[in-house]
Amino acid sequence: MSLAFLGWSEGRVLVGRGPFETRAVPPETGVAFYRNDFGLDSSEPWLIPSESALLSKEEAMEWAGIEGPVDVSWDNLEASPFAEVFQEITTSIRWGIFEKTVPVVVEKGRVDAGGAAALVSRALSASEPLVPYGIVADGRGFAGMSPEHLLILDGRTLKTMALAGTARAEEREVLAVDEKEIREHEFVAQALVSKLGDLGNLSRGARVVMDLGPIVHFHTPIEVELNQDEPVDALIRRLHPTPALGPLPRTGETMSRLIAWREKLGAPDEFGAPFGAVVDGAFRAIVAIRGVWWNGKDVFLPAGCGVIEPSRLVNEWRELRLKREAVKARFGI
Ligand SMILES: C=C(O[C@H]1C=CC=C(C(=O)O)[C@@H]1O)C(=O)O
């Protein structure tokens, strides 16, 4: 069994069944999913499904047909590997190599009862602003509910967003005036504006608080009316990774340092990468966060946190736990 899915517009979900035909470029008509790793290293990221449909949430859950219990027992997550990476990051920031970067920690577990594929129908239960996404093949896959769109492209209208700066729902008022969180967010918003400003007429919305139940984030919508048609692969490369998941400045050197830290802490290759789809020329991609990865009975729950000069280890560790706990609660695991 292989399948892929992505929350589409107007509450619908794009679903596709394998086998998938892989391609280097998107088809001009019809449906293809886009799957890549964080470094965008795949030579054939476009996956054309054997059959596809745009369904309501309920229809999509029925279509997936893999409900059932999933009980996961989680290992204790050691803080010391993250503390070492955090130390290396703060030193690199002091040396002026980075202004911001985003380490990723991974909580590991095992499925005790049921099958991990049932996580697909849990992801499909997502409600806006969360977007369900995932792909499953040969007993491995990932499924998530992402709050972050990397790119929505319809004709010459491009939409993206800065999503960074985090607090517990109870701390919503203090988030709004927290200088460190505002600075972290503004790094992302301003980087997006400068990456896209030369492509057309850009409008940046106001910074608002996005409510996700137990967790809240700063959110700034950004829209560009493009001067000309732009190939979607080029736009993805221009945007990804934004400083919400990637380094600032983004250079070959800062990317390889981040990828080395991600590998050291065991981040899945697709975590934080764009996951998307094209339907008759219209493209949407989310950032693959707030998800669960699995391989057979092994389950991985990654989370990242933006680190800037004023960031402190204990606070970041707490934020990482908050993000993981929010995912566990939504998936009921
Ligand atoms: C990297 C993650 O979240 C991103 C999205 C929202 C807020 C973030 C933050 O405040 O660091 C991150 O940029 C994650 O959930 O693993």
From TrEMBL:
<dbReference type="Pfam" id="PF00425">
    <property type="entry name" value="Chorismate_bind"/>
</dbReference>
<dbReference type="InterPro" id="IPR015890">
    <property type="entry name" value="Chorismate_C"/>
</dbReference>
<protein>
    <submittedName>
        <fullName>Isochorismate synthase</fullName>
    </submittedName>
</protein>
<dbReference type="InterPro" id="IPR005801">
    <property type="entry name" value="ADC_synthase"/>
</dbReference>
<feature type="domain" description="Chorismate-utilising enzyme C-terminal">
    <location>
        <begin position="81"/>
        <end position="323"/>
    </location>
</feature>
